[in-house]
Records
---
Amino acid sequence: MEGILLVLGLALIMGYLWYVSLIKKRNTGREALSGIDVQLKKRANLVPNILKIAQKYMDHEKSLLTEITELRALATKGYDAVDPESVKNHLQVAEKMNQKMSQLMVSVENYPELKSDNTMLQAMQTYNEVEAQLAAARRFYNSAVSELNTAVEIFPGSIIASMASVKVMPFYEADEAAKTPVDAADFLK
Amino acid sequence: MNLATFLFGAPIKAARSTNSLVAKPAEIEQFKLYYLQHLQPLTSKFENARVASLKACRQRLYLCSAIYLALAVLAFMILPYMRLSEPLLVYLVGLVILALPFGWWLYNPIKHYKKDVKLKIYPLIFKYFGQDFIFSAEHKMSLSVLKASKLLPYYEDASFADYVQGTYKGIEVALNELHLTKQVKRDKSTDTVSVFKGVMIELSSHKDFRGHTVVVKTRGGLVNFLSDSFKGLERVKLEDPIFEKQFDVFSTDQIEARYLLTVSFMERLQALSASFGHKIQCAFYRNKLLIMLGSKEDRFEMASIFKPATFEYEFSQINREMKQLFAIVDVLQLEQSNGL
């Protein structure tokens, strides 16, 4: 009898620790998501300035500018951080916005006057800085989500997760820019 | 000349340039020109000083040897009359103690000469890398900052040597030789063990950061779990499995750590680590990138006192070592605003 009680007690403690670990992972995921939101907010605040400067020169890119404006409005709209579907949509809009902004940055190259505009240069620099921060926040988020999803999907975590209503979260997927490999030997000869 | 010929009285003569400057073909012309303009005019004076110091040293050596031998013989004769429990041991210890002041006194002229070279020639050599470059044998980095960066292993004693500071491609560079030791108790004795020997490099950063991120050689999960060396910092798990195998990253800010350690920066750090025999660790702390580079060799060493004071060896050697350090900035691409 005592043995059964001991096993039950141990199982209960283990179950509780598992539950604690799951909740910790979920909270880390949410914290990482809020890190992304901070950067998205910074970017959303920056976009109107870039568009205002760009409008002066980029007559032929009006559809792109309008699209960005619409996406910005969508990206700044609230969403349910607890609902994975809502998070997924939110991240997809953010990524689409990212793609369109990259397209805009490439188009800037075709407008030498705009390219040499000091205000535009400064805005682009700040934008790139925010993008770098966003990329970092995305990496942290994806790492946290990967840990959470693994814990939620593997038995017995799957049972505890369903009891505690902890769900898998969507990854923030984005195309990584091609990286040039570095050969230190070239420098250290 | 070498130590043996010096001891046996070979004539000490001044020698002139030996044309042994070594540099990469691309810079050899400029290198030679700098040498001819700034260093060669001083060689004659220093060669005379070197010869004088060697002559003084040898004179003192002969004098000391005679006095030392006389004292040793005298002590040996007196020894039986002294009622000592272990006369031979006392005699030998006495001989060693007696040798110390003699050694100090006879080495003094060479010590002065070497000090003079480091004081007057080395700063000129370092000016070759930029007018703002300074060299100092006394100046040292703040040990409290290095300690606070959490890069240093456990140590009990720290000694700094040569210090260099300047700007390379817009990056402020400072480096300092550092040797850390600790005492280890054996069965019957206590030994001094070296825990780090190498150079600390401090580089300014174009990226702003407020947190504290440390990249150390991987220590294994169990050590990380038990150790409190990085108290206040959280383990950062990065997506590159090869990097993760080689390094452990700790930071006060998960996002900032990833902002600093971009995928390409991780690749560069790995490449650099492989080039330096995996003896690199670094920390982003107080807006600086601190790099701890382990190395058994001393940097910026002088040629033998028996070689002529042409400073060609020193200049070539320092140039090679500095270029290696500049390569760190090149590999890490710190000069670019998006380099990190």
---
Amino acid sequence: MTDVTAGRGFAASSNDAPALMVRGYWRTVGYRLRYDHVTLFFALVIVLIALSAIFAPLLAPFDPLKTSMAYRLKPVGFRNFLLGTDELGRDMFSRLTYGGRMSLLMGLTPVALATIIGGTLGVVAGFVGGGINMLIMRTIDVFYAFPSVLLAVAISGTMGGGMSNGLIALTLVFIPPLCRIAETATTQVRGLDFVEAARASGAPTRSIIVHHVLGNVLAPVFIYASSLISVAILLAAGLSFLGLGVEPPTPDWGLMLSTLRQAIYVQPYVCALPGLAIFITSLSFNLVSDGLRQAMDVRI
Amino acid sequence: MATAGGNRTSTRPLVEVKDLTVSFNSREATVQAVNGVSFEMAPGEVLCIIGESGSGKSVTLRALMRLLPKRRTVLSGSIRVGDYDIGALTERQLTAVRGSVVSMIFQEPMVALDPVYTVGDQIAETVVRHEGCSQKAAMERAFQLLQVVKVPSPERRLKAYPHELSGGLRQRAMIALALSCRPSLLLADEPTTALDATVQIQVLILLRKLQKELGMGVIFVTHDLGVAAQIADKVAVMYAGRIVEMGSVRDVLLRPSHPYTLGMLASTIRVDRSRDMEIEAIPGSPPDLRRLPPGCSFAPRCRYAESECTASVPTPTAIGAGHMACCFKAGSLTQVVPQAIIA
Amino acid sequence: MKRDASVLRGRPKLDAVPPGDPRDRGGKIQPMLVVNGLRKYFPVRGGLFNRRTGSVRAVDDVSFVVLKGETLGIVGESGCGKSTLARLLMHLIPKDAGELIFDGEGVGEAHGLTLTELRRSMQLVFQDSYSSLNPRLPVEDSIAYGPRVHGMSRAQAKEVARELLEKVGLNPGLFGSRYPHELSGGQKQRVNVARALALSPRMLILDEAVSALDKSIGAQVLNQLRYLKRHFNLTYVFISHDLNVVQYVSDRVLVMYLGQVVEIGPVEAIYTRAKHPYTRALLSSRLSMNPDDRIDEAPLAGDPPNPSNPPSGCRFRTRCPCAEDVCAAKMPTIGTWVDRSSHLAACHMEDATSGHSRAGSAPAAAALDRAIAVPANL
């Protein structure tokens, strides 16, 4: 029974708030994820793809670059070739696992770089406001006006193709949306009361950004970035398909799709495999990022 | 349960709610928002439901129109408004009832009014929908309604968008919209909480006047005892999803019986009392609706609580004609509230 | 920014501050804060190049004094400028004109207080909203942020935070590591108060501190504030739209309307013998708890006029029952403030030389009550 000493009403509030409230933010996120079977399944798929890419040398039964005129375009399960062979007789399974490395690299790296660069630009623009904001955001808008595929092709083509140019092109394509997200989030957070309270306690701008603004801006930025990974994988494959990405004979799904295109009537299932790999990887990242977004949207 | 006013007992109550229970289910927890609420209301009466946040008052109100999210809500008990059994209506019947028999006004008019249509258009749309008249006739009615709710220059305001009106005018526009089809029951969810004091009193007086003229029943949800004193005929006090005290406004505010009502009245600022004394605040805070304490939900904060209070939930005990309280000590705690509180 | 750690050398004591506060510079007679001619206009932008087409006169020539150890209540309805005033006092937004003198020293001037020193002397408690605390920080980190910014070590700041949590009635072991979304409204508000006190200020500005809370929780917080004021020897500026709360906590009250001060005086005088028609209307709009005591006619009709285009002369004249021609021609002045018992109103009826038909005559106040609810023009 509460002790009600007249007037000391405020001290008795320590009895408040039953233990149900003490679960932390991350634990709530974990709790929600635990029951989100779709997200968990596709997260597992991503892990498997990543593992197979990392351990490709151990997993691949054959050398992905070893050609064989005798065993060209063999179907799935032919002799030791688990998934058949391509038009130059190379084992598909080995090429797919090695190709995963390229695709994941070309998918993740541009997004990571763009998050850092675009995120920083966006936070600066959002926090400083005024003329600098206009300068940065209008420049970004110019890039944003181009469709991403065209922009990537244009930049990569102009620079001459190749893997590193492809990476640069993709990074440039992803900087504008990330910058915009970061700027919007920063502008919103900047107007909230607790930022004013931090200013009222005399904190310098740098401290306010680091302690108060960044923590609240990073979440939407990361979630958006994770949803861009699936797009990046598709775009990277597209660039390779057009011959602007990785150069042959390096295994890469987009490139494989391009070269196998002519043989699609001969061995349809084998030729569709790289496309299937791209599809599954991209879809998995998409669904997982969606699931993460829902789980992290924990409000009061 | 006897209704207020002896000569009305022969009239069928406009609203009859029996054992209403509403809970919201999610995987994480089940929130028991409303736990067995029963009340009646005569036609043309104003019932005020008083409660603080988490008391379940807004949920009860929305349950009367079944405005709660379908998937997560579990609703049981019976609700009758006029001739309609709200719980048994299909979606289409419900849409026909909403707006024409039962209407609702909200706390934030900017939320209730569509920002891309003019005020006149919105009112006319409702009229056309429910009464099937022409657009011209509906606009004429909208104009009359704006006059009735005392919006100055109504011809001009008919063509105004909601964001062009001030807060008080928006609230009046929303009231006009709610009254456009002459409902027999008006539900009001804290419509004056966000308004300044001078505008609040205007809106309350207007509502009272309209209610009398149209013979409407009004259920008004608020956390402010002063609002209840100003417009209510009957008052129900809710705590943690249950009605803990109900009766005529004079009974509940001047002769309160339940410890929660007593506590609320005691913690209002008294005009006469020396400013050196502290306010008698009710200690603690409302319970978590996901984990209600056993027995009486108010027991952890109640100064009169004893072992029987946590053992079982108190049932309604009659104290006077039409006055009840859910407390094991009902009747023995009744004190006449000193005049000083109500200066 | 060069941090002045000297003031925070050693742990600040959170024990009761004795009346002879060592930070006191001018003694009891000197006001804690003097506000003179404060003005803030917000530009209204429109047209092709976002040109400034007009101004919202949020705060227009506001002058008043806050005495040491008192609680000054500021009341007004929405649009009167009280929140802007709070931010101007805290130097969170720059002022357009006017001066602010804290305990005898101007702020931001050459020989006066630096902004840093002001921040340690005056703090703001926000209205409890979902945005008043950083949702990503545990509450004790939010409280400890201020002291850390001023040079305190992490361990010391955390200690200060935990002591303050206890002083506001929250068990630090139970609540310190919680996040804001795990607290109820009343608890969050206590944390807001603790955060404001972390820098050991001498004056607190409370901007609608209990308005968003349930009445019973708000009562607890008010009791809390009363205790803290005595314990830390604070001065309060309490801003609210709730007249009953202001009456309870304040020693003197200031009434604002459309960016101007319309009345100022001791609390009993304002609440029993208000001079300005707006104040009287505001007081008559309060709802009583007695169902037999209902208000039949609204004391004031209509809504406040547009703050970007206020009426000429007296801004209240469009809703005032006693408005006359002189009210449109000349803006009334509030008179000269002498001491804590001065009761002044900015109204032509108070000024014997104004030319108003009821000027300077004692029945002015009584006539107001009879004339209520019939506005001059709507």
